[in-house]
Specification:
The complex is a heterodimer. Chain A is an alpha+beta fold. Chain A is 22% helix and 39% strand. Chain B has six helices and nine strands; from the N terminus they run αβββααβαβαβββαβ. The chains are: A alpha+beta, B alpha+beta. The interface between A and B is large, with 44 and 47 residues.
Chain lengths: 320, 201
């Protein structure tokens, strides 16, 4: 009997170390599952959010954590027939620990999900549960987890929740598709270039901020500075490639943070980027060969001039 | 005049020259380095020419590294590789005083506890080799083939998590790369995004 009791204990003993670490991770952050409304209607989709508030000095990660870290993982439990969509994150910030850069949130953040309840609901409430596993880091990292539950009332009349304004604030922070601007991605020799064409009449003179966060990790150099310039009424943003030589994906997806819409007013907005990666029309290799030939040409020209100069001096001396 | 010619010659050759930084790059020769190991011996990549080499970046304080060492997964991987004549170099790039750094007095006891089956445990506290290889996370894995070509760089497996349960159904990229090299077949996934704690440079 005692032996069996011991067997029963083994899994707990094995995971005791990890449990202690998770408990430590949970101490540095507050997590909540919130909704803008207390009520929902059958068959009508609605949004909910998982809200994180890490302690000062701690951060959590975006869907692409960058050079290191880990995106949160959400495992939902919901009544049959209820669909829960994929996570929508606000634009992240760079977290620099040279020579490395991660993408995440050092301040509070809300991750948004769309829920589609069944067409007919017999229960008077809808109970949603989520198990969140995530990584929290300061100069060291600790795993953290949360089990959150939210119960919403099924009713015809709607009732705001106390979290309504907080929820709306975070909802407005989600990256938006930009239909006015044309965004392309082009392969260059040592980088991928985002080409942004503004709508007619848009001035590009006072744009101060342009930064891209790639959804797929690995191909881009996350820590390198992204240089940009205005050329022929377009914005050209250079995305440097990772030095290891991992190829860029066929589609460039991610978030562009810019003040292009609100020039000079200090407002930034986040745009969704999702565009096929085009090949380079001017081959980089041929450019380099051309450059080399020009270099050799100049040197040859100098040598010839020099020889002539010497010959002339010789002649001058002979004349003397 | 001579100086002008020299300057112009230099400029010309600069235009012709490729990038001079010899950072590690997949599909190209792995840059050589020399580091002192935990026994005080200097180990260089060229000591193992014509052998398959695995580089593993480590920080024993990192929960992702703990997943692999506490479960015995890393030690088993190392043992199997070394048995097949693969050279396994475990590298610690934690700077002095940062997480995962051990003083010469602390190190032997720590390594005794971890029971690693690597060929050597290398000390890179100034982070030079880590930067040369662009090591970002612990763990971060690199595989070098018999011709000294870097053939794999990235994550150890496809389960970015600190949870031990994820080991069970994981696809281990290192095992795949080594199997392919030993069989002489192509490595299906030559690069992945590494996951883990940041290297504590």
């Amino acid at each position: 009997m005692t032996f069996f009791r011991f067997l029963f204990l083994i899994p707990f003993l094995l995971f005791a170390g990890v449990r202690a670490e998770i408990a430590e991770g949970n101490r540095h952050v507050a997590v909540e599952l919130i909704a803008p409304q207390q009520t929902i209607r059958a068959g009508e989709s609605f949004t909910i959010g998982v809200f994180f508030k890490p302690d000062p000095g701690w951060h959590l990660y975006w869907m692409n954590p960058g050079d290191s870290g880990l995106a949160p993982r959400f495992d939902w439990s919901a009544p049959e027939g209820t669909q829960i969509g994929s996570p929508h994150y606000p634009a992240p910030s760079r977290i620099d620990t040279p020579p490395l850069t991660s993408y995440g949130y050092s301040d509070s953040v809300m991750v948004v999900f769309t829920v589609e309840p069944p067409e007919t609901m017999r229960q008077s409430t809808l109970k949603l549960g989520v198990q969140v596993d995530y990584l929290l880091c300061s100069d060291v990292c600790v795993p953290a987890e949360a089990e959150l539950v939210l119960e919403l009332i099924v009713a015809d009349e709607s009732q705001l929740s106390p979290d309504f304004y907080r929820f709306e604030h975070w909802l407005s922070r989600l990256p938006q598709s930009q239909s006015d601007w044309r965004i392309r991605a082009v392969t260059r020799e040592s980088h991928v270039q985002l080409v942004l064409e503004p709508p007619p009449g848009e001035s590009l003179s006072s744009i101060a901020k342009l930064e891209f966060f790639p959804e797929q990790g690995g191909w881009m150099d996350h820590s390198a500075r992204q240089f940009w310039q205005v050329s022929r009424d377009r914005l050209l943003l250079d995305l440097p490639l990772n030095s290891l030589g991992q190829p860029a994906p066929e589609r460039i997806r991610g978030v562009l943070v810019t003040d292009a819409e609100w020039q000079g007013q200090g407002f930034e907005s986040a745009w969704v980027v999702d565009t096929a990666l085009e090949g380079d029309r001017s081959s980089g290799t041929s450019l380099r060969i051309l450059g080399g030939l020009v270099g050799v040409g100049i040197v040859l020209l100098i040598v010839v001039r020099l020889l002539r100069f010497h010959q002339n001096r010789k002649k001058d001396r002979e004349i003397d | 005049m001579k100086t002008t010619v020299l300057v112009l010659l230099l400029l010309g050759s600069l235009v012709l020259a490729e990038e001079t930084v010899t950072k590690a790059r997949i599909g190209e020769a792995a840059p050589n380095f020399a580091l002192v190991d935990s026994e005080g011996k200097t180990i260089s990549l060229t000591d193992y020419s014509e052998k398959i080499i695995v580089l593993e970046w480590v920080n024993f304080g990192c929960p992702f590294v703990r997943k692999f060492y506490d479960s015995g997964t890393m030690q088993t991987l190392q043992k199997k590789a070394v048995k097949k004549d693969v050279v396994w170099l475990t590298i610690n790039s934690s700077a002095t005083g940062k997480q995962g750094y051990y003083s010469p007095e602390e190190l032997p006891a720590q390594l005794e506890k971890e029971k690693g089956n690597y060929t050597a445990y290398l000390l890179d506290s100034d982070g030079q080799v880590g930067r040369l290889y662009g090591a970002k996370t612990t763990p971060h894995i690199y595989v070098i083939d018999q011709n000294s070509i870097l053939v794999y760089a990235g994550a150890i497996d496809d389960q970015p998590s600190t949870k031990k349960e994820t080991l069970e159904n994981a696809t281990n990229y290192v095992t795949h790369a080594l199997d392919a090299l030993l069989k002489g077949t192509e490595i299906e996934t030559p690069s992945t995004q590494p996951y883990g704690c940041s290297v504590k440079y």
